[in-house]
Amino acid sequence: MVSRYRDLFIQLTLREIKAKYKQSLLGYAWVIIVPLVNLLVLSIVFSYFFKVSTDSIPYPIYLFVALVPWTFTANAITSATGSISANNSLITKVFLPREIFPLSAIAAKLVDLILTALILIIFLILFKVTFFPTLLFVPLIFLVQLMFTIGISFFFSATNAFFRDIENVLGVFLTLWLYLTPIIYSPQMIPPNLRFFLNFNPMAGIVNSYRDVILYGVLPSFEVFIPTVFISLLFLVAGYWYFKKRSWYFADVI
C-alpha cells in the first residue's frame, strides 16, 4: 500500500531532511561534525585513559566502524518515534497508510548514513586498512540492520502516540543500549559467562559482523549472525503487526 503513496513518501522524506538543518549555520556539516567529535572524544578516552585492546587495528578505526551503523540506528529510532505526533494534522484529516511516517523518518537518516560512511572510507584509506573481498557482505549486514531498525521504530512510534513519555526516556534508553553493545569496547572484554547474552542484542551481532567483514576480512560468525537475522526479522514482523493494530486509534489520541 505504501508504494501507492510513493510521491508523498518522497516529499515527507525530503521535508524531514530539510527541517533538521533549517536555519542552521553549518547545515549538513553537522552530520559529519557530530560523529567526528564523538569519535575524537571516545578515541582519546579509550586509547589513553581506559585502553581497549583491538589487536593490530587502530582504535579510532575499530570504534568508527561500529559507531557509524550505531549512529544511524539510534538517530533513525529517535526520529521515527516522534513521527506520528509530528504529523498529527495529516493523520487526522487524510486517509493514508500510517507506516509511511516512521518509514520516511528512517529514510531521511539514510542521507546521514551515506555521508558518515564516506568519511569512514576516507579514514580506512588514511589508516591504510586493507580492503577485503568480504566487503561484499556489507549490504547484507545492512539489510539485517535495517529490518531491525524498522521493526523497533514501529514499536516506539506506535507506543509514543499513546504515551508521550517514550520520547522523554528514549535518550536514556539509547545511552544504556550503547554501553551494553560492544561499540566502544571489544566483545572479548565481556566475561565469557556473559557473552551468551549478546545473542539477544541484535546490534551486538550487527556491529561485530561489520567489524569482521571490514577490518578482519572474515565472514560474520555463524553463531552470532544467524540469531541476529532471526531476531531482526522477528522485530520487523512483530513491530509491523503492533503498529498496524495501534494505527486504527492514532487519530483519536494525537
What do you see in this structure?
This protein has helices at residues 6-20, 29-49, 59-81, 83-86, 88-93, 100-126, 138-162, 165-180, 202-216, 222-247, 250-253. It is built from eleven helices and no strands. Helix 1 packs across helix 6, helix 3 runs antiparallel to helix 8 (165-180) and helix 9 (202-216) packs across helix 10 (222-247). The radius of gyration is 19 Å and the shape is globular. It has one domain (2-253). The protein starts with 5 loop residues before the first helix and ends with a helix. The protein has 254 residues and is mainly alpha-helical. The model has no long low-confidence stretch (mean pLDDT 84).
* Average pLDDT for all residues: 84
Strand content: under 5%
Strand count: 0
- How would you spell out the order of helices and strands? HHHHHHHHHHH
| CA(first)-CA(last) distance | 23 Å
**What can be said about the biggest beta sheet?**
none
Number of contiguous helices: 11
Radius of gyration: 19 Å
Helicity, as a percent range: over 70%
The shape, in one word, is globular
Low-confidence stretches: none
